[in-house]
Design a protein that fits this description.
- The protein has 1 helix and 9 strands; from the N terminus they run H-E-E-E-E-E-E-E-E-E.
- The protein has 201 residues and is mostly beta strands.
- The chain has one domain: Beta Barrel (Porin), CATH 2.40.160.20.
- The two termini are 29 Å apart.
Length: 201
């Protein structure tokens, strides 16, 4: 957590030094799912709602906003039928990305936007069944999303459909050393709704 808030502080400081605008937002992941693709099978789970926090810096160029940001998607756990447990356990995400927004011209204080994000997501899983004979580990992958926004003065509402790509590797301890068994490609998707405050230019 200290690294996360340290990263957000650095991004904020850079925004102030470079005299660009920024957005600090709190939100919620909804309609989440996490699944793996194995051959022709898609196996996964429904994720419950979980809170998010994000900070973004933006440079306005006419009707375009170009920027960068970092989000933290707090821990969520599998939503499975009674008696079932997930080998993935609690998991969170830290995406870092570039952003592009087109500000639709309007008259008045309401300013609608079309938004796209592209970057890299760093997942963290608890893997509750890891032991001295078998373990899972994860590595990050692409992060991307698209959605709409609505600004009213300094307030900002965004609704984004976002995707995190990652890999999960299974390893077994055999004859004194860890050996990789298999690796699965995984995808997490959420509909994120956030309300933020815009500051700066």
């Amino acid at each position: 957590m200290k690294r996360i808030f340290g990263l957000m502080f650095i991004v904020t400081l850079c925004s102030m030094l470079n005299a660009v605008g920024g957005r600090l937002a709190f939100g919620m992941d909804t309609f989440g799912e996490l699944y793996t693709i194995n051959a022709a099978l898609r196996i996964g789970q429904v994720d419950p709602m979980a809170p998010t926090v994000s900070i973004q810096v933006m440079q306005q160029i006419k009707n375009l906003s170009l920027g960068a940001g970092a989000d933290y998607h707090f821990n969520r756990n599998a939503n499975l039928p009674e008696g079932f447990e997930s080998v993935w356990g609690k998991h969170s995400f830290l995406p870092i990305y570039g952003s592009f927004a087109y500000n639709i011209p309007t008259y008045g204080s309401l300013k609608p936007q079309l938004i796209a994000k592209l970057g890299h997501s760093f997942p963290k899983f608890s893997f509750p069944f890891n032991d001295e004979d078998e373990k899972y580990s994860s590595s990050g992958g692409a992060f991307y999303g698209a959605g709409i926004g609505l600004d009213y003065r300094q307030s900002s509402l965004q609704v984004m459909y976002q995707t995190h790509e990652m890999k999960v590797k299974n390893s077994e301890y055999y004859d004194g050393s860890w050996e990789d068994d298999y690796e699965n490609f995984m995808v997490a998707r959420q509909l994120n709704i956030s309300l933020g405050f815009k500051f700066g230019n």
